[in-house]
Structure formats: structure tokens, C-alpha cells
Amino acid sequence: MVKLGLSVLVAGTVVFTTVFCLFGQIPSNPFPFTLSPGGGAALRTDGASGVLSVGFAKVLTNTGTTQPGGFGIFELRSNATVVSEATVPASAPVLNTAFFVEVGGNITTGIAIANPNTQSATVTFDYQDPAIRFRGGGVNPGVITIPGNTQISGFINEPPFNSPAPYFGMMRLTSDLPVGVTALRGLKNERNDFLMTTIIEPDTTRQRGSNVLAPEAVVGYIPLLVDGGGWATEFVLRNPDIDDPASGTLDFFDANGAPLAVMIGGQSRTSMRFSMQRGEFERFKTDGAGSATRVGAIRVTSDAHSFSPDFFTIYTFRRAGVTVSMASAPMVQAAQVFRLYVEAGVDSTGLLETGVVVHNTSASSATVRFDLTDLNGNPVGQPVVMTIARLGQISKFLREIPGFSSVSLPFRGVLRVSTNNPDGISVIGVRGHYNQRGDFLVTAILPFDETQGMQPLAQLAFPHVADGGGYSTNFVLFNPGISASSGTISGFLRNGVPLNISRAP
Q1: In the beta sheet, which residues pair with residue 274?
Q2: How do residues 281-329 score in pLDDT, each as one tens digit?
Q3: By three-state DSSP, how is residue 303 classified?
Q4: Are 196 and 250 in contact (CB under 8 A)?
Q5: For 197-218, how does the pLDDT look when each residue is reduced to its tens digit (9 = 90+)?
Q6: How far is CA 294 from the centre of its chain?
């Protein structure tokens, strides 16, 4: 996979019927689903109207069945050409959250807040003080009331969110009822196309011990680093603690597990030191130098007596001097078993295929097994076994994996990636899409960590849906468990009007 190379969040209310399509099912609202073990379902809006309509969707899982995984993919067309895509994971509504935002120059951030409850939710928010980042109180605070089963969305520097501008830092949000939240980063490129990606925050629920006693330790991985040949990778680190500093090292490894040299600030580096005071950020970006594409992985090590940082990357790809793709990936934890939604096909918009990146986090070689199922949970082909060198990596599109090259197109299914290495592997999916003018669009797909086991049943939300005016939204639900998953999906326009759900053509 060597070529590895917002939605518009409107403030006004648009009443327009959006059609959700679940393949092979009959119309209803709420929409019932049943997913076989290892199977899934693909949904979509039709994107046919010239009028932009926005809303949200929520998923309720039946008691006694497996909680599904899911994500949405926003797609934007300009003059009938797909110019941008962004993947947004489905998530459980929350009472409080904080997430990275940025606005200034050609960068902006949009936020959508969906209230899936029947009662009104009161949401308060503010922004991390850009001068004193560890300060408890924020700047530009606000309060919003969101009626039940409605949604509000907009750019952060516009009403009602009114952030400082320019700004980069954390937006903090608290609600008296659980709400779904999505933030999308937008970039206006050199030919005025609007590129978008979700900045997915890393898992901050891991246990952190006393900094006084903490030894030097690996705190996470980025399975994909890509630089050169039009690609550049930006690193964004944050010290989430307001009491102690955070410091450590980023180590870069190539596919064979050897140190990978990349240019950062005009210097060739195989590792990078970071050091942040309380609540602070640190940002680096590879130079993207040279015509050859270098692909590898990143290991994040925290110093002894240091707080563990949060870390994510932003990838950009330039073709003929134009930025044509932007994507983001969070720091992840190693595990032994992952499930990843995959697809491959050719349609009117171009060639589309999912790639998988697997990084061996161990100091010894790892045997990795790939099992592929269709959306009904039926096995496709034979299991594939590959060996990855110590600290090495493989990155392949689905049909580049030996044994899956003859998969019939179009294909949608679930790829299970597993290892018996006790140190585990880190995994990320990459959805690659060549559009009508040959630009390579890319968006990251997060896999499900199967070793987490059965999750408590929770309502899942897709906080933002966009359809019409050049936008469409694709949805994926997949069953990561060994027993059936069932439940219902309900959709609403932003003013609470139910969405119609119907059979796909």
C-alpha cells in the first residue's frame, strides 16, 4: 500500500426528507437490524437533493445481544467529483468531554451536538485558556439548550460557539443529559476544495499511576507514519495533566523494524524528543521531502516520573502541488485481536478499497492471522497467516493480502486480525478512494479491539448526518462478537423531524 498517501455544518434549520438505505431490508422507522457474528450492514443517504439537510442518528442495541461497532463516512462532491471523505466513529453519548479544535488561516473546525433524549439538554462549554493552559477556568464560555431529539451544529468561531480566532487547543463541554458530540477539522485547499477529517482523541481511560513512582514506559503506538512522495505527517502531543510535566520520545520504525529516518525541520531523525509543561501542546511535522514514500510506525515512550501524553497524527497528501487528502489517526494500545470493516469496488466515483496497517509492537517476530467474512458472517477464502519482523509493519490493501486477491467485487465484509504474541499488535484501517480525476482520497478506520470483551449495552449516536448539496453519508454497523447483534436505528433531522428509512436501490 505504498500510495498511502466538514461536511458543512450549517447553523440554520433545513426541513428536508433524507432517505437512509439499509441493503436488503424493508422501510421502517425506527429501523430494526440483526447482525450475524462477524457480519455487518452498510447504510447510506442518497445525496441526490441540491438542498443540504443535516441531522443525526442513534442506535439502540437489544438486551442480551452484542453491542455493534459502527462509523459514518461523510462524502463531499464538487461538480460531480468526490473531493473529500471523513470517517466518524459511532460513540456513546456523554455528560462531559474535551477535544482538540483549531481555527485560523485555511483551517477550521466544526462541531455537532445531538441530543438523543426526549427531554431538553443544557450544554455548557468553554475553551482552554491559550495563555495559561493548565488553568481550571476557560475562555469564551457559553450555554446552549438543545431540545430532545434535535441537533445543533456550526463552526466553532461562529455563533453560538464563538471560539477565539485564531485558536488551537481544547474545547470542553458538559451536559446535564448524555449527548452525542462530533468535531470535524476542515481545510480549504489550493483549488478551494473543502477537505475534512475527524480528529479522534486517543484512549485516555488507561490507568495512570503516581508520577513520582512511574518508570520509563511505552504508552502507545501510531501504526502508520508516512512521509515523502507527496505525503507528510503532523504529530500533535498534549499533556492532559494540570499538575505535572510530560516528556519522552517518539521512535520511528520501518517495515522491517529498523529505525526509519524522516526529515523534520530540515534534519533527518529516527526519533524525536518531546517535553510539555502542564496542559501544554507540542507539534511537529515531517517535511514531506523527496519523491519516494517512506512508510513506518511510531512508538511513544514516556520518561520516568513523567505524565503520559495524549498523541494523534494528521496526514496530508499533495498531488501536483495541491493538497488532495487529509486524515487523522490517534495513538492506540496494542492488543491481540482486532476486527476491521473492509470494502473494495469500483463505482461511478472511482476505485475504492480498504487497506490494513499492522505494527508488531514486540521485540520478537509475530505471527499474524487474517480471517475474512462477508456481511452475513460467512467465511471468505482461507485464513491467511503472515510473519512480521520485530517492531516491523505490514501495510496492504485487502486484495493485496495473499488469499484475498480474488475477492469478488464489489465486496463488503469484516477482517479479523489476530496474533498469539503476548505483546500484541497495533492496527488501523485506511480507506483509499481514487476519485474521478485520479486524486487519492484517504480516511482512517479504527478497528474494534476484540479483547475488550462484551461491552455494556449503551445507546450509540451518529451526531452528524449530512445529505444533499453535494454531501452524502454512508454508515456501517458491524458485529465484533461471537453472538448475534440486534437492535434499532432511528434518525432525525436537526429540528426533530423523523428521517424516512427505506430499502437501497
Answers
A1: 248
A2: 999 999 998 999 999 999 999 999 899 899 999 999 999 999 999 999 9
A3: coil
A4: no
A5: 998 876 544 445 556 567 889 9
A6: 22
From the number of C-beta atoms within 10 Å of its C-beta (0-12, 13-18, 19+), residue 331 rates as: buried
Name the E strands within 260-378. 262-264, 267-269, 271-276, 281-285, 294-302, 310-319, 322-330, 337-347, 350-360, 366-374
Query: Hey, what domains does the chain have and what are their CATH numbers?
Result: 19-200+463-503 (2.60.290.11), 217-330 (2.60.290), 337-443 (2.60.290.11)
Alpha-carbon dihedral 19, 23, 29, 32, rounded to 10 degrees: -160
80-83: long-range contacts at Cβ-Cβ below 8 A with a sequence spacing of 24 or more? Answer: 80/436, 81/349, 81/435, 81/436, 81/437, 82/349, 82/350, 82/433, 82/435, 82/436, 82/441, 83/193, 83/194, 83/195, 83/324, 83/435, 83/439, 83/441
pLDDT, tens digit, 9 for 90 and up, residues 255-282: 999 999 999 999 999 999 999 999 999 9
Establish whether the linkage from the previous residue to 383 is cis, with ω within 30° of 0.
no
Show Cβ contacts of residue 205 under 8 Å, excluding neighbours closer than 6 positions.
Answer: none
Could you identify the residue written with the cell 455487518?
40
Residue percentage of the chain with pLDDT more than 90: 66
Cα torsion 320, 349, 31, 86 to 10°: value is: 0
Q: For 462, phi and psi rounded to 5 degrees?
A: -105, 95
> Rounded to two decimals, what is the model's pTM?
0.91
CA dist 211 and 51 (Å) reads 54
Q: What is the pLDDT, as a whole number, of residue 167?
A: 97
Cα of 378 vs its chain's centroid, Å: 27
Residues 116 and 461: beta-carbon distance below 8 Å: yes
d(CA 60, CA 55): 17
pLDDT value of position 250: 97
DSSP state of 11: S
